[in-house]
């Protein structure tokens, strides 16, 4: 089976029927990712089938949560090589997506991807979550904040919840059993204006890899003092 056939087939297994254009976009994204990965570290996963499963499919599994997707404004914090933001934009073109990363080289790569794939209503921005979450044009402006960044839930919530408008959601993508982490972060989530609504556990299709998606609803505004200054949410998580 050729690459495009494989992409189409794998997405159909999770009840997503890709158009020819979307399939071509995923193939081109993969090619750009691998080419750029030779000169800068974007991903440890480079085999085609693995990238499709562990990056592309994994990114869009949020579709199984009860979160509105059509035409919403989303932000991907600590997007790295563009996961989950870029796959989400390819599959749900109506989304308006902001890709935020603290490394300018990655942001430049993402801008190249956005241009090459012809993705509209996507901005790739260079900066730290602690600073951007203080800016009026970003603070509490998003229907949903997603993040696959590696950080404990209390820290990640402090980075991400300030971006979410009241009534919106923050969805961290986790790859380990996180029941203890959820319990430990409960107070932090509450302080930041959130409440845990739903946890979706699954094994990534075609693999034996456990995944967990958490839906944290924003129920009240985040106090002005959060997020704290750079590095603090990681060094001293709220509890």
From TrEMBL:
Localisation: Cytoplasm
InterPro entries: rRNA_ssu_MeTfrase_G, SAM-dependent_MTases_sf
CDD domains, A to Z: AdoMet_MTases
Residues the entry annotates as binding S-adenosyl-L-methionine: 78, 83, 129-130, 148
Top EC class for this record: transferase
HAMAP family, sorted: 16SrRNA_methyltr_G
Entry's EC annotation: 2.1.1.-
Protein name per UniProt: Ribosomal RNA small subunit methyltransferase G
Taxonomy of the source species: Bacteria, Bacillati, Bacillota, Clostridia, Lachnospirales
GO MF entry, a single one: rRNA (guanine-N7-)-methyltransferase activity
GO cellular component: cytosol
Gene3D superfamilies documented for this protein: Vaccinia Virus protein VP39
Pfam families linked: GidB
Record family assignment: Belongs to the methyltransferase superfamily. RNA methyltransferase RsmG family.
Nucleus among keywords: no
Record key words, sorted: Cytoplasm, Methyltransferase, rRNA processing, S-adenosyl-L-methionine, Transferase
Function: Specifically methylates the N7 position of a guanine in 16S rRNA.
């Amino acid at each position: 089976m050729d690459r495009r056939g494989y992409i189409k087939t794998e997405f159909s297994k999770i009840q997503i029927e890709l158009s020819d254009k979307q399939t071509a976009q995923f193939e081109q994204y993969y090619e750009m990712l691998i080419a750029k990965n030779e000169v800068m570290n974007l991903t440890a996963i480079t085999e085609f089938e693995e990238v499709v499963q562990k990056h592309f499919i994994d990114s869009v599994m949020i579709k199984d949560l009860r979160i509105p997707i059509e035409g919403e404004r989303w932000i991907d914090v600590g997007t790295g090589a563009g996961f989950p933001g870029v796959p989400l934009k390819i599959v749900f073109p109506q989304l308006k997506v902001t890709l935020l990363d603290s490394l300018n080289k990655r942001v430049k790569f993402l801008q190249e991807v956005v241009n090459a794939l012809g993705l509209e209503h996507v901005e790739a921005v260079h900066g730290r979550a602690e600073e951007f979450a203080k800016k009026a044009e970003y603070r509490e402006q998003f229907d949903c904040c997603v993040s696959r960044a590696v950080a404990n839930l209390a820290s990640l919530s402090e980075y991400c919840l300030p971006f979410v408008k009241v009534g919106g959601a923050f969805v961290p993508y986790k790859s380990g059993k996180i029941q203890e982490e959820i319990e430990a972060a409960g107070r932090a989530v509450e302080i930041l204006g959130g409440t845990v609504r739903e946890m979706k556990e699954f094994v990534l299709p075609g693999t034996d890899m456990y995944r967990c998606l958490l839906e944290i609803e924003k129920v009240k505004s985040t106090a002005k003092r959060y997020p704290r200054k750079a590095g603090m949410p990681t060094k001293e998580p709220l509890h």
